Amino acid sequence: MTKNIMIVGVGGQGTLLASRILGNTVINEGYDVKVSEVHGMSQRGGSVVTYVKYGEKVYSPIIDEGEADVILAFELLEAYRALPYLKKGGKMIVNAQQIDPMPVITGAAKYPEKIGEKLTDAADVTAVDALSLAKKAGNIKSVNVVLIGVMARNSEIPYEKWVETIKTTVPAKFLDINLKAFDLGYKGED
Length: 190
Fold this sequence. Notes:
single chain, alpha/beta, Pyruvate-ferredoxin Oxidoreductase, domain 3, 8 helices, 24% strand
């Protein structure tokens, strides 16, 4: 059976590192893995979407609407935009952080209200204050690994396997912070 995971966020949040950690972990578990990175205006804080599919045999990395088993969302509006991709009975893990997109910053649009409520009304959502946990880990840029920790806690892959992958995927100078961030997400400490 194939597992479909969508990782959504904005440029600079580390969605690509998160997809590498996920992809490498499931490869190490013996799964066939396909990853597709769909970049928006990632350098300017635009949308970034990554598809990770794994299973016994995977033929395409693309995830269509209604096919995502899990959506890992690094920001509220990006979570809301990805909602149509979540399959019935799927799970959404959402960083409860609001990052204004360029149209909101320039005053051309308003950030939609009550997105968190709309998400929880529509889906099985685990909301996480990943920014606070990342600060606790020592660096706000480790939000991505906090969220990977939350997802890993609900996966069939043992904790130790995730830690091994983080050790081989994250640059050495950021390893301690990212291991702490993973632990905070995995253990659900607030």
